[in-house]
């Protein structure tokens, strides 16, 4: 993957990005529509999230998951996370490393559009290649030239490798006026080898512009591949495309009040 950045040990320890790292991250993201951020979150925290996720979601009978959650591919589910510990934590949704990067891209007024996960079970086939949202405007030139309006931060809960499959990303497609035709061709004849493929370890994250062409790859491992995602957007954007049956953000009873006051605006649309 071309667009990659590593958070240094001192940055991770002090939980503060150097201005130069933040600027570099922003430039890379704007150009490529994606960014693989190495060492973004302490692994011990990711392992805590992974253990909770497994118990609450992965270990459920597949029949139950199919009934309650969106099916987004063969043996692949999109599950809105029920916000309660350890998920209801500013360290996750307003992370000191990742959130300033997001704000530098979407503006300081950005909000959380959705908070969920994609769970691919062993044997899941490649997903259909897609945009996360249909183009906002009729004009392809306009769509490619506006600044980002929404982006997804993906936090893998297992190490991602060739076996587990990753998310294949067509870097730069968010800005191409020809992206719609490109997607049509890829939908008929997928060319997975042309895509950029991050292989993040636990603790890494990757960001994707809502306009970038991408698709989840097959899971050929013998264990599930859960990834958490946080979609941030400019405050005016409402994702009516992905969420009609399930809520984009789900609070467990009594949990909303545990959001620190200074972060409540992030949940203003929910
Ligand atoms: O499974 C993945 O890697 C990506 C899933 C995805 O892009 C989606 O469901 O929109």
The count of domains is: 1
* CATH top-level class: Mainly Beta
Bound chemical compounds: 2-oxoglutaric acid
Q: Could you state the order of secondary-structure elements as H and E?
A: EHHEHHEEEHHEHEEHEEEE
- What would the principal axes of the Cα set say about the shape? globular
Q: Which structural class is indicated by helix and strand composition?
A: alpha+beta
Radius of gyration: 17 Å
CATH architecture: Sandwich
CATH topology: Jelly Rolls
Short description:
The chain contains eight helices and twelve strands. By secondary structure, it is α+β, with helices and mostly antiparallel strands.
Structure notes:
- By secondary structure, the chain is of the alpha+beta class.
- It has a single domain, classed as Sandwich (Jelly Rolls).
- Helices cover 27% and strands 21% of the residues.
- It has eight helices and twelve strands.
- The strands form three sheets. Strands 1-2-9-7-11-6-4-3 form an eight-stranded mixed β-sheet. It has a two-stranded parallel sheet with strand order 5-12. A two-stranded antiparallel ribbon has the order 8-10.
- It is globular and about 45 Å long.
- The model has no long low-confidence stretch (mean pLDDT 97).
- Bound molecules: 2-oxoglutaric acid.
- 2-oxoglutaric acid binds next to strand 4, strand 6 and strand 10.
- Residues 72, 76, 78, 118, 120, 127, 132, 167, 214, 216, 227 line the site of 2-oxoglutaric acid.
């Amino acid at each position: 993957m071309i667009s990659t950045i590593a958070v240094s040990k001192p940055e991770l320890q002090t939980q503060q990005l150097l201005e130069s790292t933040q600027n570099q991250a922003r430039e890379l993201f704007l150009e490529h529509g994606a960014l693989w951020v190495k060492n973004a979150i302490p692994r011990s925290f990711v392992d805590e999230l992974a253990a909770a996720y497994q118990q609450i979601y992965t270990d459920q009978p597949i029949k139950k998951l199919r009934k309650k959650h969106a099916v987004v591919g063969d043996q692949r589910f999109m599950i809105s996370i029920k916000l309660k510990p350890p998920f209801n934590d500013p360290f996750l949704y307003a992370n000191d490393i990742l959130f300033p990067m997001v704000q530098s891209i979407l503006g300081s007024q950005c909000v959380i559009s959705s908070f969920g996960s994609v769970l691919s079970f062993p044997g899941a086939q490649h997903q259909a290649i897609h945009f996360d949202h249909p183009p906002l405007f009729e004009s392809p030139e306009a769509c490619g030239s506006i600044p980002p309006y929404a982006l997804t931060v993906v936090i893998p809960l297992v190490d991602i490798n060739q076996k587990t499959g990753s998310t294949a990303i067509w870097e730069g497609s968010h800005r191409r006026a020809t992206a719609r035709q490109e997607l049509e061709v890829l939908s008929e004849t997928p060319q997975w080898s042309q895509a950029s493929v991050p292989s993040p370890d636990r603790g890494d994250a990757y960001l994707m512009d809502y306009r970038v062409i991408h698709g989840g790859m097959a899971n050929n491992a013998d264990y599930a591949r859960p990834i958490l995602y946080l979609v941030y957007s400019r405050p005016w954007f409402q994702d009516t495309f992905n969420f009609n049956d399930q809520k984009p953000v789900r609070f467990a009873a009594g949990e909303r009040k545990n959001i620190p006051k200074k972060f409540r605006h992030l949940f203003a649309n929910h």
